[in-house]
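STRUCTURE:
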């Protein structure tokens, strides 16, 4: 895992002035100290500018849409002192949520990326920012619509996709059906994405339909996760991605009861009766990996489906493969 060092420094022309102030302050303070202490503080003052943009942790400002831009694109802040040309991470949420999944509540994914010095963008797949339950094709079209605005705003030609759950399939379909979209993707991370389809979706639209309806699981998006639907997509996607030269990375959750989510406790037991091996409450571990011809499975984390998309369990894996900011 990559280590981060914390620092506070200005990213504008006032940066030099800040360090002058630090040196003056230290000079005044160390006159009364012994030589050893003076030496240690002097070394610290000399190294301070080189410690990087994240040496003292700061709370990341809330992402906001750009003035006059699409209301469902949220741009994260750049840590003070961060490189304005740092890689852009584009986050795609999963089924039944929106862009705020990544930066509200207990999810520290945005904070981790911010602290590390990356530029971040979060999209809602519903134009009105309502919780999204649309089909893969509809969400792929939305991503294709939003990406040009993001590239222009950030002044980049490529982004790094980080996707949770069904958002991974939405992004993959956007790549499959748009050459320009795919050419703008540098790397893809899918977290708890049912890349091989979801047996739980088969159950929800089969023997378990009445129970699934009571649990609020039925939606156009869930219907698209049935194994027959995803297998048809894979037949189209895999040959294209095998020659695209774009690396994919996957991560699975293995403990549906870890966060004591009542729905996952129930659906996890159902899924355990359908697919052997561990599951995260919605997706089995075996349903996540992609072909090794173009993808690397990063491993497993002992958390439930929702939490696989949080920074604490997932960011260390992601950071290992991203280029440095």
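SEQUENCE:
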């Amino acid at each position: 895992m990559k280590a981060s060092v914390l620092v506070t420094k200005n990213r504008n022309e006032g940066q030099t002035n800040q360090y002058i102030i630090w040196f003056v302050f230290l000079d005044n303070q160390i006159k009364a100290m012994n030589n050893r202490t003076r030496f240690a503080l002097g070394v610290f003052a000399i190294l301070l500018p080189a410690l990087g943009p994240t040496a003292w942790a700061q709370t990341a400002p809330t992402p906001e849409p750009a003035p006059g831009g699409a209301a469902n694109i949220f741009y994260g802040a750049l840590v003070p002192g961060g490189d304005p040309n740092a890689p852009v991470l584009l986050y795609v949420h999963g089924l039944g949520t929106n862009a705020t999944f990544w930066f509200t509540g207990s999810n520290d994914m945005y904070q981790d990326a911010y602290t590390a010095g990356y530029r971040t963008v979060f999209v809602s797949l519903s134009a009105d920012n309502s919780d999204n339950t649309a089909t893969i094709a509809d969400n792929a079209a939305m991503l294709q619509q939003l990406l040009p605005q993001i590239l222009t705003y950030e002044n980049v030609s490529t982004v790094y996709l980080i996707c949770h759950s069904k958002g991974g399939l939405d992004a993959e379909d956007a790549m499959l059906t748009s050459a320009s979209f795919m050419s703008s993707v540098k790397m893809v991370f899918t977290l708890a994405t049912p890349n091989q389809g979801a047996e739980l979706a088969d159950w929800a639209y089969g023997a378990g339909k009445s129970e699934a309806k009571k649990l609020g699981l039925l939606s156009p998006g869930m219907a698209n996760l049935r194994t027959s639907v995803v297998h048809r997509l894979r037949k189209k996607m895999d040959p294209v991605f095998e020659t695209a030269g774009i690396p994919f990375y996957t991560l699975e959750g293995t403990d549906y009861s870890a966060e004591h989510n009542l729905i996952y406790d129930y659906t996890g037991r159902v899924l355990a009766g359908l697919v052997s091996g561990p599951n995260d409450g919605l997706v089995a571990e075996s349903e996540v990996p992609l072909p090794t011809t173009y993808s690397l499975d990063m491993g497993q984390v002992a958390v439930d489906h929702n939490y696989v998309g949080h920074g604490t369990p997932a960011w260390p894996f992601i950071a290992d493969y991203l280029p440095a900011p």
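REMARK: Confidence is low (pLDDT under 50) at residues 1-32, 40-55.
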